[in-house]
Every structure is written in C-alpha cells, then in structure tokens.
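Hi U.,

Before I forget, here's the chain from the pilot set. I'm dumping it here mostly so it's searchable later in email.
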Amino acid sequence: MGSVRVKAFILQNSNCTGIASCEDSLAVSVPKGRFAVADGVTNSYHPEFMAQLLCRRFVDGALNINDWDHSMQNVISNDIHNQWSSQVEEYESGLSGRRLNHAIEKRKNLPVGLSTFAGIEVDLNNKRICGKILGDSTLFYVTKQGWRAFCSNIIDCTDNVPVQYDNHPSCVSADGVVIGHWIDVDLPLQDGYVFLMTDGCAEWFQSELRNSTEIADRVWSIPDHEAFAELAASSRKNLQMDDDLSMIILKIDLQSASGFVIDYFDSFSQVTFLSLQDQVNPNEEPLDECTCLADSSPEEALQDENDHISESDIADEEYFEATVACEVSMDDTQREADLGLKHGIRNLFHNIYLRFIKSK
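Structure:
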C-alpha cells in the first residue's frame, strides 16, 4: 500500500498582528488523500476568505479532480461566491466610523477576493499523484532522480529553468473569473517528498534546492511551529520568506504499509482545516469549534510528535474533526489585533526607555 507521512505549517507575515490576518490557508483530508494550499492575493478584497474556501472545497472531495477547473466555474460563481459574500458582510457589520468608510472605499477599488491555489490527490492504490494548480503556489517533487516544480508561471521546471515569482500571479476571483490558466499534474508516486507551498515559501525553497536537494530532508525535520517560525525569522533577515507562509510536506515510503499518518499539523481554526474522517455531507457548514474524542486538546493531540495519528488509529472512532477554516470570528480577530497593538506599544516604550538610558 505504501505510507504518506504528513506535516503542515502556516505562519503569518512579520507585519501581521495575528494568524487571523494571514491571507494564506491550507487544508488536509486523510480519507480523501487530498492536500491543498492557497494564497490570497493582497491587492483584492478579503482574499483570506477566498483562500480558505478554495482549500476546504478541494479537500472535501465533492468535485472530481479531473473536472476541478471546469466544475469550479459553477461552484465559485454560486456556492463559494455566496459564502465569500456572507463572510464579508459579517466582517463589515462589525465596523463603524472611519474603519467602515475605509472598507467601503477599498471594496470600490478591489471589489472581490482573489487567490492562487495548489491542490493534489494522492492515490496509494494506483500509485499516482494528481493535482490542479493556479498561480505561483507551487508543487515540488523531490526524489532520488532529482527535483521538479509545478506552477502556472511555468508548467514543469527543473534546476535549469527556475520558476520566476512576481507580484502578478494567475489567480481565481470570488465571482469565478480565472486570470491565467489552471495546470494539471499527473505523476507516478515514488519514494521521496512532495511539497505544496505558497510563493513566500516556494521562492526560498527553490533557491535552496538549486544548491542541494538535502534541503528537503532538513525541511522535513522541522519539528513544530516554533522551529518553523525560527526558520522564517532567520530567512527574513536575508529578505527571504517575508510573506505569509504555508507549507504541506508529504514523505512517501512505498515499502511501508502505514497509509496516511499525520506527524504534525499547525492547528489554527481561522486558516487551517484537517479532516480525519469522511464527511456525511460535504456541503454541511463547518463546525464552529474544534471537537476531539481524545482527552487532550486538539492542539496537544495533533502536535505531540510522539503521538502520530493514522487511519488505523481512528478506525473504531466515530470521528476526529480537528480544526476548521472559513469562518473567522470577529471577536477572535479583534482580540488578536488588540493583543498585537498592546505588544507594539510595549515594545515602543521599551525602545524609548533604552535610548533614554543610553543617552545618560
């Protein structure tokens, strides 16, 4: 059968006050073998909602991957657009005064949300990887034979023809307009790594790959969110990874028979989604809160490196639904913004105090 071990990380831009303001999203469905990342385009209106909706819709498995780009035209025009509009209205209903006027003006100039996307389906039985990609969210495939990268900027690149990342990627809008074109991915499943990354991670990773494929092992060895944040902080000093960052890593071993195993998953209810059981109705609204049959919290259950979760582990359980995107609580968003403001004010006065002491 083979095994696919999974790690997933997400981190907001260094300028953001909290994860709720992150415009990236990622999603994983173990039963469907589907994985997705999306990057909301900054110069659009609430792109984070669009990124979250695309990821969740892909991994729920309701749309056949072969018809994804064609079916999405109808789905985006109707279902996703309605959900995006509902979330925007909920957000705007909590605004007043200058903040509301600013939102209205911004929407006049940037009326809809835009997002790039990369999603794959791993078929362990037929040993295939199929995917759909739009924009500069990128799939990297690293095996003993070398590495390849796939995104809309260049369909299939190698060390000799690198992907060029810019600020004008192909993307899809909340009203169903595709800017650019979808590309198909159909690859044989081999021992090695698959990386799904939004452009902030992908540009850095590609530059490292061109030096040595050993970077794949080093990235896989990242144990948790804190270590991922440390890597980003170090890279940002060199003007790299200075963006929202999303990354899903699959480590493939065809000699094993473990199936899909979640090694680590960044659990943030606003921007990530993990499903460990088939949904009875894929069109149902996501749960408002994390639910878990284990005694520990969802974060503890998912982030304990010594406590892997596999299909066999949950075969006798009703379900283990671990965190849902798509509905950002305005209370949580405001709380995170207030916390970021407090930290900023504290740091400002601390710096003023240090300068005063040094001047004495």
